[in-house]
Amino acid sequence: MNSDHPTKRLLILVGSPRRDGNSAALGAAALRGAEAAGIQATLLFLDDYIESFLPDLRRSPPPTDRYAELFLEHFLPADGVLICTPIYWYGMSAQTKAFFDRSFSHYAGQGPEPERVKQRMIGKRLGLAVASEETYPGAALGIVHQIQEYARYTHSDFVGYVHGAGNLRGEIAADPRRPLRAAEELGAAFFTSKYSDYRVETPRARNVWEPSPALRSTPGVLP
């Protein structure tokens, strides 16, 4: 599902309670990259929309917060979604997890409305940006796996992942791996980067990338 971006909409969701934290810095960097590339991008904080977890819907209605607005008016129309979250106990923040859990109240059940919601949940481009105190590469693998499986379940494309380290607010800018730059590049190329996820039956060429003229060769002739 490789695509251009002229009419694409990118939604950046920040799952940290800190407006000036490292997850927010990653989201802001991705926003800068997307806007510089001409992408229609929006950055939202989950704290502004989610005030409660998913209840037992057999016994009580959904919470009366702004989640429906977030999900129906921002998430569903988006062509791509970048999730930015801190790592809390080697998982995503409670706000981020609640975002996924609460979607159940909109796609579960029978009838035309859940079916319309499910149709608009599928086929998106998804990205992940995480911030942690540790530089340990495995710290974020649980979150990566969750997004990977969500992408698989919704027939979406998991196109990129950035992990930066920092504890103090804004400290992620000092990470020598340059995660803010990586997030900016992810935002800019969100809809144009090549995506491949092969199955055994997938038709594919021998080469992954289009060869440059210097690498092209004629059979029997060295390039």
Largest sheet: 5 strands, parallel
Order of helices and strands: EHEHEHHHEHEH
* C-alpha termini separation: 32 Å
Radius of gyration: 19 Å
Shape: globular
Average pLDDT level? 90
Widest β-sheet, arrangement of strands: 2-1-3-4-5
> Low-confidence stretches at least 5 residues in length (pLDDT < 50)?
none
* Beta-strand residue percentage: 15-25%
Overall strand count? 5
Query: Structural class per helix/strand content?
Result: alpha/beta
Summarize the amount of helix as a percent range. 25-40%
Number of helical segments with 4 or more residues:
7
In a nutshell, what does this entry contain?
This protein is α/β, with parallel strands linked by helices and 223 residues long. The protein has helices spanning 22-36, 67-75, 94-102, 104-107, 112-121, 141-153, 179-188, and strands spanning 9-14, 40-45, 80-86, 125-132, 157-165.
How does this structure look, described?
- There is one protein chain.
- By secondary structure, the protein is an alpha/beta fold.
- The chain has helices at residues 22-36, 67-75, 94-102, 104-107, 112-121, 141-153, 179-188, and strands at residues 9-14, 40-45, 80-86, 125-132, 157-165.
- A 5-stranded parallel sheet has the order 2-1-3-4-5, with helices on both faces.
- Strand 4 (125-132), helix 6 and strand 5 (157-165) form a beta-alpha-beta unit.
State the main characteristics.
single chain; 223 residues; alpha/beta; five-stranded parallel β-sheet; globular
Topology (SSEs and partners):
Blueprint (H helix, E strand, L loop, with lengths): L8 E6 L7 H15 L3 E6 L21 H9 L4 E7 L7 H9 L1 H4 L4 H10 L3 E8 L8 H13 L3 E9 L13 H10 L35
Parallel strand pairs: 1-2, 1-3, 3-4, 4-5
Helix pairs in contact: 1-7
